[in-house]
Amino acid sequence: MGCCRMRMIRAIIRPEAVDRVADNLEAGGFTALTRIEVFGRGKQKGIKVGDMVYDNLPKTMLMMVVDDDKLEGAVKIIEDSARTGNIGDGKIFISAVEEAYTIRTGARGL
Amino acid sequence: MKEVLAIIQMNKMEATKNALDVIGIPAITAYKVTGRGKQKGLQIPHPTPSTSSSSLEPSSQKRMSYIPKRMISVMVEDEFVPAVVAVITKVNRTGNYGDGRIFVCPVDESVRIRTGERGNEAIT
């Protein structure tokens, strides 16, 4: 079991960008993904509208695990399809995954 | 310390929690998630493991792209990882597509907020 042959990508993106990102990922060969509705804020401390500060902005987190050599490709697709150029486009985090199992078969790996 | 992340069928939550409790790991965090795997969501007609892979071609319109699932996160000491994986696999395996996936990820540190304990003490 070599270390870090797989990586987890967690991308926190605009909810309205999800379909675009997911479609492009699928076209790029990354079908499997998990989406989680989350709330958060970034460096800009949320958005301020008049006197109201909104600092729990709804976002969607896409979670996927890919083999190391496909990492760059997947990140590129997410980046390019989630970018609008405005504040709040989101962030992508990458972390290590040591083992993966398919429950149906018990097989290791993706 | 490791995090065992398992994405499982919604209706297996109770059984999974009970089974983990039995082996002495009652502490879990659960998320409501949606997602899809290699089969590209729920196809209509739904493929079975016995059908050949060629029948998995996307029938673009007739499918449900995101299937509701539960994701559970279990933080355990390294030596418990095989047991947790085995238990989750055993409880959740039906042999059909959609049984789910388990990921094991490294965790650097944990803190029990009430007492300030760190590391393995915080998760036992």
Quick structural overview:
Chain A has helices at residues 18-27, 71-82; strands at 6-13, 33-40, 47-49, 52-54, 57-67, 90-97, 99-102.
Describe this structure in words.
- The complex is a heterodimer of chains A (110) and B (124).
- With 110 residues, chain A is of the alpha+beta class.
- Chain A has a single domain, classed as Alpha-Beta Plaits (2-Layer Sandwich).
- Helix content of chain A is 20%, strand content 41%.
- Chain A has a 4-stranded antiparallel β-sheet, with helices on one face.
- In chain A, strand 3 and strand 4 form a beta hairpin.
- In chain A, helix 1 packs antiparallel against helix 2.
- The longest helix of chain A is centred in the C-terminal third of the chain and has 12 residues.
- Chain B has a 4-stranded antiparallel β-sheet with strand order 2-5-1-6, covered by helices on one side.
- Chain B is of the alpha+beta class and 124 residues long.
- Chain B is built from 2 helices and 6 strands.
- Chain B has one domain: Alpha-Beta Plaits.
- Chain B starts with a strand and ends in an 18-residue tail after the last strand.
- Chain B is elongated.
- At the A-B interface, strand 2, strand 6 and strand 7 of A face strand 1, strand 2, helix 2 and strand 6 of B.
- Strand 7 of chain A pairs antiparallel with strand 6 of chain B, so a sheet runs across the interface.
Q: What characteristic shape of chain B results from the CA principal axes?
A: elongated
Say how many strands of chain B there are: 6
- Strand adjacency order, main sheet of chain B: 2-5-1-6
Residue fraction in strands of chain B: 25-35%
In percent, how helical is the residue content of chain B?
10-25%
Count of separate DSSP helical elements of chain A: 2
Tell me how many strands of chain A there are.
7
Could you say how many structural domains of chain A there are in total? Answer: 1
What fold name goes in the CATH topology slot of chain B?
Alpha-Beta Plaits
Indicate the structural class of chain B: alpha+beta
Through-space gap between termini of chain B: 11 Å
Q: Mean of residue pLDDT of chain A?
A: 91
Question: Major sheet of chain B: size, sense and barrel closure?
Answer: 4 strands, antiparallel
Average pLDDT rating of chain B: 88
Low-confidence stretches of chain B: none
Number of domains of chain B: 1
The proportion of strand residues of chain A reads 35-45%
- Biggest β-sheet strands, sense, barrel of chain A: 4 strands, antiparallel
What's the CATH topology label of chain A?
A: Alpha-Beta Plaits
Tally of contiguous helical segments of chain B: 2
CATH class category of chain B:
Alpha Beta
